[in-house]
Amino acid sequence: MLLAALGLAAEAAAGKRPRRASDFDQLLRERGLDPQAITRPLLLTDEMRAWARAAVEGQVTGEGRLRALIERLLDPDHLRLEYAWGYTGTAVEVFEQRRANCLAFTNLFVSMAREVGLSVYYLLVRDQESFRKEGDLVVISDHVAVGWGSAGSRLVVDFSLQPLGDYRRAERIDDLTALALYYSNRGAESLQEDDVAGALEWLKTAVLLDPEEASSWVNYGVALRRDGQLEAAEAAYRKALEIDPRAGSAASNLASLLRLSGREAEAIELEQLLARAGGRNPYTYLALGDISVRRGRFDEAGRLYRRAINLKRRDAEPWAALGQLALIRGDHDAARRLLKKARKRDAEHPRAVQLAQALAGIDR
After folding, report:
1. C-alpha torsion sign, points 231, 232, 235, 236
2. Residue 222 falls within a domain, yes or no?
3. Is 306 among the domain residues?
4. Is 96 domain-assigned?
5. What are the per-10-residue average pLDDT scores of the chain (364 residues)?
6. 8 Å CB contact between 69 and 55
7. Which of 52, 64, 136, 283 is the most exposed place for a label (fewest CB within 10 A)?
8. Crossing angle for the helix pair 264-276 and 282-294, nearest 10 degrees?
């Protein structure tokens, strides 16, 4: 299992430079936020500062300190950090609980590395965005890593369960944008827990912290729709698309909302435009495949479902969708094979359950 890696990364786009501001609180006030009410995920305790300094004791070079800090954080005899989905902790929470996802680890590492004199920064890795389906909506979790050095010879510290990429779409971001991503992640986690009120609070703050981060607007739109604020949700999705026209989750969520409002033709047009642009969101291809099935274009539907599978092989839904298509076409053996694949990934997924029930009716 890959937990962290240090290596030379490909040169990335310049992206946002750190904001040169001596007063972070003033930046928050300018965005209409009370600095005292904002969670600071980078704060360290005195114990943590001492721990970080001890971890790099005797190291005279920057790279030596960087590697020593990584080793100490992952060493079973020391902090022994483990990867954990589902909760984005602050640096203090990670240190106490010994568990972290990518952003939580990055918060801890950035704060400790700076404590020992390393000029590290956040990297937003667009290549490794993750999408999660919540009903008929898609929620985004951004992948974040640590950068050190200039773009041409950058060293990257990445805490991940996924194989490392070449970071071609890694974008340097400042601390304020990283704080916005922390709030966006916490909002997405609240949505997963069905805490809509909590999600709205986290996500409203996220878009105030960085109004130019499309993924936060997407998640805010999901929370607004869950709260029944359909017009505000549509505005949030359109804001995400204004910032990033390639934001596939914004487009697919907007299409779902348009369809709910009876604007089917507009929804189809939006999804087709996204598919032609080569989006990376598997749920867009699932939605297009479902439209093709309803219109009797079965070969086209199969191609679209397979594109969804290629983008997210571990998700049950595209396998079950392909199985439902096989059943429509009368290929019961293929439907059973695809059901087995879907159940292996998530036996309780609604589409897998529907397919199983349909096959059970045939087998009676």
Report:
1. negative
2. no
3. no
4. yes
5. 39 41 78 91 94 90 89 80 81 89 89 92 70 54 78 72 57 89 92 93 96 91 94 91 75 87 84 66 75 80 85 88 93 94 92 91 73
6. yes
7. 64
8. 130
Question: Distance between CA atoms of 33 and 49, rounded to whole angstroms?
Answer: 28
Three-class secondary structure assignment of the chain: CCCEEEEECCCCCCCCCCCCCCCHHHHHHHCCCCHHHCCCCCCCCHHHHHHHHHHCCCCCCHHHHHHHHHHHHHCCCCCCCEECCCCCCCHHHHHHHCEECHHHHHHHHHHHHHHCCCCEEEEEEEEEEEEEEECCEEEEEEEEEEEECCHHHCEEEEECCCCCCCCCCEEEECHHHHHHHHHHHHHHHHHHCCCHHHHHHHHHHHHHHCCCCHHHHHHHHHHHHHCCCHHHHHHHHHHHHHHCCCCHHHHHHHHHHHHHCCCHHHHHHHHHHHHHCCCCCHHHHHHHHHHHHHCCCHHHHHHHHHHHHHHCCCCHHHHHHHHHHHHHCCCHHHHHHHHHHHHHHHCCCHHHHHHHHHHHHHHC
The whole-angstrom separation of Cα 317 and Cα 347 is 10
Task: Label residue 205 left, alpha or beta by phi (over 0 means left) and psi (-120 to 50 means alpha).
Answer: alpha
Residues 6+ positions from 67 with CB-CB distance below 8 Å: 6
Tokens of 360: 């059970």
Tell me if 347 is assigned to some domain: no
CA distance 223 to 186: 12
Q: From 214, 202, 222, select the one nearest 279 (Cα to Cα).
A: 214
Domain total of the chain: 1
pLDDT score for 271 = 74
CB 77 within 8 A of CB 130: no
Domain CATH number, residue 116? 3.10.620
Per the structure block, which two tokens stand in for 218?
A: 């997407």
Domain membership of residue 18 as a residue range:
1-174
